[in-house]
Design a protein that fits this description.
94 residues, globular, 77% helix, mainly alpha, 0% strand
Length: 94
């Protein structure tokens, strides 16, 4: 789940939707802290790319605010937010 959300946050950052990206990665960061787990190398790479985008386009204060907002979310809310706000599912036309 965390990797999927981290990728969606990176997509949002590349689309210049920095607040959404920072909120989602705020939840991901807090979930890593809660679980005591660490990012695998691929996850670290994605996080580095994402954080570079955030750092280049937001102030440190803004990053902190958005990270803190996302950290307060439940897992269900984080997943729902990413699905609806970042990469909405396509509706079938069949």
């Amino acid at each position: 789940m965390r990797l999927c959300l981290q990728v969606r946050a990176l997509i949002a950052a590349f689309e210049r939707r920095y607040a959404e990206a920072a909120q989602v990665i705020g939840w991901v960061n807090s979930d890593y802290t809660r679980s005591g787990e660490i990012r695998e190398p691929t996850e670290q790479l994605i996080y580095g790319l994402l954080f570079n985008q955030l750092e280049a386009n937001l102030t440190g204060d803004d990053i902190g605010v958005w990270f803190a907002e996302g950290a307060r979310w439940s897992e269900a809310h984080a997943a729902d937010y990413a699905l609806r706000r970042i990469v909405p599912p396509r509706t079938s036309t069949l």
